[in-house]
Design brief:
Layout lengths: L2 H24 L10 H12 L5 H9 L1 H22 L3 H5 L10 H23 L8 H12 L1 H5 L2 H7 L2 H26 L21 H27 L6
Protein name: Sodium:proton antiporter
Subcellular location: Cell membrane
Membrane topology: Multi-pass membrane protein
């Protein structure tokens, strides 16, 4: 493809995006006005499905299909990184033990915060339909907590306690079960990802129908995917350059 062709193709795409943006801005409600169509629709829907966290209601109920697309993008990014950063056998053999010292206070803080961070991540995922948080946020917290081993200890310690294979299985299983939950909604409620489980009592842990189920699945997928992704980046970073 020539430079002239690429330029025209880029210009056509930019023009299309500009038209969409201008159209969206022209149709926006007046700033400071009393008309908020999305709010007026989303809030009653969240209350009707016993979901105190309005953001989770939007992500895992009203726009659960969009969340499936975002989850798929995360999985595709991990697969792409695995393909590009997979070290060869010779490179794996060149990964030597980590040298240098870690300050005792850093080790103590890391070991102390590791279980706290893991518990916090689980809490954020499980209670995502009740309080601020959810699967995406909690998954990142869980992956971060796991890698406190690397900060406070060493890479070999992290490598020994990091089940990469199981994380790969968990990421694939969580993504697949998200689709299965959508198909269950299609069979029981007539719509893909329809919220067909009992809504329960407002404010209780077992409530909001499929919202906490999807939040947990996304939390597993994000946490496992980030662990696998960071493993590849750390592996590449610790391979010494050949002289």
């Amino acid at each position: 493809m020539t430079l002239r062709t690429r330029t025209w193709l880029c210009a056509a795409g930019a023009l299309g995006v500009a038209v969409l943006l201008v159209t969206a801005f022209l149709r926006m409600p007046e700033f400071g006005g009393a008309l908020h169509a999305y709010r007026d629709l989303a809030l009653p829907a969240a209350l009707a499905h016993a979901t105190p966290n309005l953001v989770s209601s939007v992500n895992f109920d009203l726009r659960a299909l969009d969340t499936l697309g975002e989850e798929t993008i995360v999985a595709a990014a991990v697969v792409g990184a695995l393909s590009l950063l997979q070290p060869s056998k010779e490179e794996r053999q060149r990964i030597g033990p980590q040298h240098g010292t870690v300050m005792p206070v850093v080790k103590f803080a890391g070991y102390l915060m590791l279980p706290v961070t893991l518990l916090l991540g689980i809490d954020v995922v499980v209670h995502g339909h009740l309080t601020p948080g959810g699967g995406f946020q909690g998954g990142v917290v869980l992956a971060t907590g796991w890698h406190l081993l690397y900060i406070s200890g060493s890479y070999p310690a992290l490598a020994r306690l990091r089940p990469i294979d199981w994380c790969e299985y968990a990421e694939a299983a969580a993504t697949g079960l998200y689709v299965v939950t959508g198909l269950a909604g299609l069979l029981a409620g007539g719509a893909f990802l329809a919220n067909v489980l009992p809504f329960g009592e407002f404010g209780s842990l077992l409530s909001a129908g499929t919202v906490p189920v999807l939040s947990v699945l996304v939390g597993i997928e994000v946490a496992a995917g980030l662990v696998v992704l960071l493993a590849q980046f750390l592996g590449q970073a610790l391979i010494p350059a050949e002289t």
